[in-house]
Amino acid sequence: MRVTHRPLVLLAFLVVGASFGLETPAAQWLNQPTRGVPRKADGKVDMTATAPRMADGKPDLSGIWTTAEPNRGPQASPRAAEERADDQNIAASRQMRNIGIDLPGGLPYQPWQLPIVKERTHNEAIDDPHIRCLPDNFLRAYGLPHLLKFVHSPQLLVVLNEMNAGYRQVFTDGRPLPKDPTPSWQGYSSARWSGDTLVIDTIGLRDDTWIDWNGSALTEAAKVREEIRRPDFGHLEITVTVDDPKGYTKPWTVTLRQRIVVDAELIDEVCLENEKFETFVDNLKR
User: What pTM value is reported for the model?
Assistant: First the structure.
């Protein structure tokens, strides 16, 4: 039986800078090769092969994805991408702790947010919604050690998160965003194509939506734009621009890179199933 190296999430949040490479049982649907995968003569996935396209000619973003920039310590290069395509060593990203790690001077926090982030960093994110088994926002999900599955059609992009069976819907018909949305974990997303780039605009997020382990947060005023490219078979490049005047002094932009995972499937990771960590955290705070 093949054994995958999948992370134990709660331990990951207790060990700063770790690569989270613990073994757990293999995923469901064993020995099911992914169809349509370009391979080299040695059988390895050709990560730089031409990206697939949908019937309408646009890039097909479908696939199972994880970060292409796993955490390899403070000296990790922004371009040190993983070139493998299997489900071994699924890890948190370089940006998991600090999504603004590559921004000169860091994230441009509004003054009110500075002491909050400082306290959350100091106490090792003891109030982190993730470790309390609440849903992860899509920006944060790109960097967490859980697989994401994109199911793409000309009308809709669905993102399935194996953590707590989470999901996100991106309507790709360019529909107008709601005028007064009820805040939600993933917000409301509408997309359009600009050449071969899928441009997604999202609004309607909840106040204090955590986007990294340091506790950087978005507010209900946030507007998030993702520009997603699939330059080849094995990679996604996601350029994210956040415009949140309540939370930050100016808009900021980061790039989050993903790599494909083949011959694997999502596994059930239900945080509240016999979960004891929240009780542990509460006891620590007494």
Answer: 0.85
DSSP calls for 102-163: TSTT---B-TTHHHHHHHHHHTTSTT-TGGGTPPPPHHHHTTSSS-EEEEE-SSEEEEEETB
pLDDT tens per residue across span 39-93: 999 999 999 999 999 999 999 999 999 999 998 755 455 554 556 777 777 889 9
Contact 171, 189 (CB under 8 A): yes
How far apart CA 169 and CA 276 sit, in angstroms, is 31
Q: Decide: residue 285, CB within 10 A, 0-12 exposed, 13-18 middle, 19+ buried.
A: exposed
∠93-166-53 over CA atoms, to 5°? 75
Residue 117 domain flag: yes
Write down the pLDDT at residue 285. 57
Beta bridge partners of 218: 209
Model confidence over 189-226: pLDDT tens digits? 999 999 999 999 999 999 999 999 999 999 999 999 99
Q: Is residue 59 part of a domain?
A: no
What residues are paired with 238 via a beta bridge? 228, 256
Q: What local confidence, expressed as pLDDT, does residue 118 receive?
A: 97
Is 43 among the domain residues? no
Domain that holds residue 84: 9-30+64-285
- Beta strand pairing call for 63-67 and 223-232: unpaired
Total domains present in the chain: 1
- Cα 60-63-64 angle, rounded to 5 deg: 155
* Any domain includes 210: yes
Q: Is residue 42 classed as helix, strand or coil in its secondary structure?
A: coil
d(CA 242, CA 258): 19
